[in-house]
Amino acid sequence: NCLLFSATGEAALARLGATWDRMRVDYALRQHDQWYKGDGVYGDGPAFHWDYYNSFVIQPMLLDVLDVCRDEMPAWKELAGRVEPRARRYAAILERLVAPDGTFPAVGRSIAYRFGAFQLLAQMALRKALPEEVSPAQVRGALTAIIRRSIEAPGTFDANGWLQIGFCGHQPGVGETYISTGSLYLCAVGLLPLGLAPSDPFWSAPAEPWTSVRAWSGQPFPIDHALS
Description:
Layout: H1 3-15, H2 22-34, E1 36-38, E2 41-42, H3 53-69, H4 74-97, H5 119-126, H6 136-151, H7 201-204, H8 211-216
Helix pairs in contact: 1-2, 1-3, 3-4, 3-5
């Protein structure tokens, strides 16, 4: 996923009208396309890892880089046509991972980023590109539940109001060599819908239960289907 850090930097230079390196962008895009495993999920390199890096880095940065650069090369424009449906599929998976009580599986590394694990779902809401079966209102409800479970847990903040290492409260054991007080604020990527206007349906539509709430309360809910 680190290949996309340099690609994103080059895309920023391109957007700003500065000289940029197409090779860095091309290498990152082509490699991730090769590492696609199916059903909306990429490997972090040749191997598949059960973590949230498809949401933290891979899919959001693929979308952002291609937003800027897709028209620079025919191959990139063609890739964008594959990346976008994959992102919608992974957003649908993320929405289904939110339990009725606002919890989600504590799998993989970097779980100290808390609700930042839902960056892609938040980004797709911001882009108004959610899957057809997922409404903005139900995403609002799901993200709100996750955020509240994350930040209202005792011990989340220290005496000075800074985030502390943990997944739900203060749990130093989930810290890793690259985790610091500053990096904990990657959780803020879960707040991307704040970029939407107050009148947007994400904010203005009546509350709707998200998928797991419907499923576990006996309500009708759409069956899940893989992306072919």
